[in-house]
Amino acid sequence: MRLQINRRVTVNAPASKTWRVIAHEFGEIERWSSGIKVSRGTSEDTAPEGAPIAGRHCDAIQERFTHFDEQAMEFGYEMVDPPWFVRNIGNSWRVHSLEPDKSIIEMRPEIECHLILGLFIAPLLKLFGRIVVDRTFAEVAYYIENDQPHPRKQKQMERARQHTSVPQNH
């Protein structure tokens, strides 16, 4: 059973800047996504032609590029070792130029579930997926347009700084 969500967002920035953030800074998603605390690019697999890296580690999740097309401003990636209840989790992103200082990001996450289990969890996965995609779009668009993280990410970073600066009593 395959679930797919198609979403798009308009970003008030040139397509080249939008592409740079989502594709060339793929391993640095922690800079703008409140859902990710730690990320880093990886070269553990072979990178597709034109890709700056092979994939990324996000917290405990590893993702690898499945395709990367610089000219079309499109890439896809999949999760390495997805959870037991799904067969595959992937995502495709594409950037279109709308005007010199306006672009569109299209995102198409896809989850392939085991059939029987998928019948039960598909509605929840689809709802949760839409929420995550909408939140991701809000945060990446804000980051691209303002050259700083979304307020939600800023609060998360501040809480992390406060947590690490609290002295520990032994």
Give keywords:
170 residues, alpha+beta, nine-stranded antiparallel sheet, 3 helices
Can you tell me the residue ranges where pLDDT is under 50 for at least 5 consecutive residues?
none
The SS-based structural class is: alpha+beta
Could you estimate the helical fraction of the residues in percent? 25-40%
Order of helices and strands: EEHEEEEEEEHH
Cα-based radius of gyration, to the nearest Å: 17 Å
Shape: globular
Q: What fraction of residues sit in β-strands?
A: 25-35%
Number of strands: 9
Task: Give a brief description.
This protein has 170 residues and is α+β, with helices and mostly antiparallel strands. It contains three helices and nine strands. The chain is 34% helix and 33% strand.
What does this structure look like?
- This protein is an alpha+beta fold and 170 residues long.
- It has three helices and nine strands.
- The protein has helices at 15-24, 115-146, 151-165; strands spanning 2-4, 7-11, 39-42, 55-58, 61-69, 74-80, 86-99, 102-107, 110-113.
- Strands 1, 2, 3, 4, 5, 6, 7, 8 and 9 form a nine-stranded antiparallel sheet that branches.
- Strand 4 and strand 5 (61-69) form a beta hairpin.
- The radius of gyration is 17 Å and the shape is globular.
- The mean pLDDT is 91.
What is the topological layout?
Elements (H helix, E strand, L loop, with lengths): L1 E3 L2 E5 L3 H10 L14 E4 L12 E4 L2 E9 L4 E7 L5 E14 L2 E6 L2 E4 L1 H32 L4 H15 L5
Antiparallel strand pairs: 1-9, 2-8, 3-4, 4-5, 5-6, 6-7, 7-8, 7-9
